[in-house]
Design a protein that fits this description.
With 384 residues, the chain is α+β, with helices and mostly antiparallel strands. Helices cover 60% and strands 9% of the residues. Strands 1-2-3-5-4 form a 5-stranded mixed beta sheet, covered by helices on one side.
């Protein structure tokens, strides 16, 4: 069964294009039904006359332009108006006269420029028709012409409303597209910040330490090896991020987070940061985006510890529950550059946004007695 959304898509793609051609053909054919002859629109008091060969031409000019009304609304409106005038002046009063308000709806909905000029010209044409009808049938009341003009004005108003609605929808789609692009840029910026900042910070700290190990070749070799390993890991993570940005990449691009927090801790230890790590509980079978956000929280917190509290004792606590993951990363403020992070704040703001999107809780601030603490409670298993 076709869903309502699919039905709307089909109508938007094919139905709207078929309405005017279908109406044009129906009005042309219906005008020649015996029961409808001389029973169409009639204003001005001109006596009805039987259909003849000229009537076929007049009705064709009056109705058939609707077939291409969407493509050439101005030309079609002029032809239909001409056919309608001839229909009334010759006394055919055919059903095809209904095409005039229809074509006005089409014209008002599709005309983008010189709309006031179009209204003025149509009004002048209507006044010319009224004068001609008054000469052919003098003494007829003008109430019918007034009602017809108001009806045509209503048709124009309906078309203008359709145009405004379409323009508002197009503007809304552009706004949604722009918001989507901005959100994607922010997401990419967060990913780049998390990946690049952590690895580069670790490499800088390790390289600085290596400068003072020239007298200890074994330790120097270990430090340089750590720099190399960190650089390779950075390249791997950047390649993975680029794969995420490639829409043609067909493999599973989900970051393999399970077990990587421990690897992250070991990497930070090799950079010279004393880190105590504990992990309790069993990860849920399906954590959705929760495990990735937990990884990013630990990554950013350890990066800040390296940058702003290098050498301080740091603790990483991860607790897995049935429905949430709790992460706490703290420093005790005993290092050479202890204190709260003093950077741009983009990393912590990005973490807060990540956690908030999942409906969790995030906090980051000074600890009592010195140091800094980052805590996050992240729902797991309810999103993908």
């Amino acid at each position: 069964m076709i869903s309502s959304r699919e039905a709307r898509d089909v109508w938007r793609r094919y139905g709207a294009k078929a309405v005017y051609p279908l109406l044009g053909v129906l009005l042309f054919a219906g005008s020649f039904m015996p029961s409808m002859e001389n029973h169409g629109t009639q204003v001005g008091g001109v006596e009805a006359r039987p259909f003849d060969l000229l009537a076929v031409l007049v009705i064709a000019v009056e109705a058939l332009p609707l077939v291409v009304c969407r493509q050439w609304p101005v030309v079609c409106s002029a032809l239909v108006a001409l056919g309608f005038s001839a229909d009334q002046l010759l006394g055919y009063h055919s059903l095809a006269g209904t095409a005039l308000p229809i074509v006005l709806i089409c014209l008002a909905s599709r005309l983008e420029q010189r709309r006031r000029l179009a209204v003025g010209l149509l009004t002048l044409a209507f006044l010319a028709l009224a004068v001609a009808l008054a000469q052919l049938a003098p003494g007829e009341p003008i109430s019918e012409l007034t009602i017809l003009y108001l009806a045509l004005g209503l048709a124009w108003g309906i078309g203008s409303w359709l145009r405004a609605t379409r323009a508002a929808e197009a503007e809304r789609r552009l706004r949604v597209a722009e918001e989507t692009r901005q959100a994607e840029r922010s997401r990419i910026a967060r990913e780049l910040h998390d990946v690049v900042t952590h690895h580069v910070t670790a490499m800088v700290v390790q390289a600085e330490a290596a400068r003072y190990l020239t007298a200890a070749p074994d330790r120097l070799d270990q430090s340089l090896t750590a720099v190399t390993d960190t650089g390779r890991q950075a390249i791997t993570d950047l390649r993975h991020l680029l794969d995420l940005l490639n829409p043609d990449h067909g493999t599973d691009l989900r970051v393999p987070v399970v077990g990587r927090i421990r690897t992250l801790v070991e990497q930070t230890r090799r950079a010279g940061q004393p880190v105590e790590f504990s992990e309790h509980g069993t990860p849920a079978e399906s954590t959705g985006s929760g495990d990735l956000v937990a990884y990013r929280v630990v990554q950013e917190a350890l990066t800040n510890a390296l940058k702003y509290a290098h050498g301080s004792r740091t603790s990483v606590r991860v607790q897995h529950g049935d429905r949430e993951i709790t992460v706490a990363v703290g420093t005790d403020g005993s290092g050479a550059r202890s204190g709260a992070p003093g950077g741009s704040g983009r990393g912590l703001a990005g973490l807060r946004e990540r956690v908030d999107v999942l409906g969790g809780e995030f906090s980051a601030g000074d600890r009592t007695g010195g140091g800094f603490l980052v805590r996050a409670r992240i729902p797991a298993g309810n999103r993908s």
